[in-house]
Design goal:
The chain is an alpha+beta fold. The chain has seven helices and eight strands, in the order H-E-H-E-E-H-H-E-E-H-E-E-H-H-E. The longest helix is centred in the N-terminal third of the chain and has 18 residues, at 34-51.
């Protein structure tokens, strides 16, 4: 007997909960070939990874701060060993037609393992949290300060942003320890215009209370003091149909 829809959802949720780290992959594709790569990833790679028990979180490319051919993907894996198996699914092996098609589009790519924290990604992403646009923001900080940094972000910055309708899809830090670590945040917006609106929570009609605004401003100042470098790209999001 095959599993019904509710059971399949339960099994999927159980798999998602076990995702202990994520890969942030940056793939540069040949000029003007992003639409082909997007379709291949969403129609071939995404279902292959999902069926294998992994979690494709999102596929992004720049709206502001890059070229359309710069593709970012975030994929969850339960263990390091499973991550290695996932590479074969994502990249393809042998004479696989998917591999040949994919290789013909790619200029270069890099992958960086990340640890999720602050409860993001959620175990299951609600449809309402699948936004059209994401701010992909990265900070480099001293590893000794990341716990305070994350506390300021989650409890000081997010409440005001949430009041303006933003939703955090993912929050990560480097799995590899070095002199500094990169913290990565994926915050979702309904449009580029919505992202611009959230830059001014002090504006009349923003929906942010005085209490949340004060907390936000104090947290941003302290977080800035902990930051060595930061930059943001505004990204278009692409989802399977």
């Amino acid at each position: 007997m095959s599993a019904g829809p509710s059971l399949r959802k339960q099994i999927c949720a159980e798999r998602i909960i076990q995702m202990n780290f994520y890969e942030h992959r940056v793939t540069m594709v040949e000029p003007k070939r992003f639409p082909e790569y997007r379709d291949l990833f969403l129609q071939e790679a995404w279902p292959r990874l999902t069926e294998a028990g992994f979690r494709p979180l999102c596929l992004l490319n720049p709206a502001i701060g890059g070229t359309p051919e710069e593709v970012h993907s975030f994929i969850g894996f339960p263990t390091w060993d499973e991550w290695r198996r996932g590479q074969e699914i994502l990249v393809g092996i042998g004479n696989d037609a998917y591999r040949s098609q994919r290789r013909g589009m790619i200029v270069n790519e890099t992958a960086r393992p990340k640890i999720p924290y602050s409860g993001r990604p959620l175990a299951v992403t609600p449809d309402s949290d699948r936004r059209a646009v994401y701010g992909l923001r990265r900070w480099t900080i001293d590893p000794d300060t990341w716990e305070r940094f994350s506390e300021l972000t989650e409890f000081g910055v997010w409440p005001a942003m949430d009041a303006m309708g933003h939703r955090v899809l993912g929050n990560f830090y480097d799995a590899v320890l070095s002199d500094d670590i990169e913290v990565t945040n994926l915050a979702g917006y309904t449009s580029v215009g919505h992202w611009h609106e959230t830059r001014t929570p002090q504006a009349p009609g923003s929906g942010v209370s005085e209490e949340l605004l004060k907390l936000f401003q104090e947290s941003v100042r302290e977080r800035h003091a902990l930051t060595r470098h930061t930059w943001v790209q505004v990204m278009n999001a692409h989802w399977p149909e």
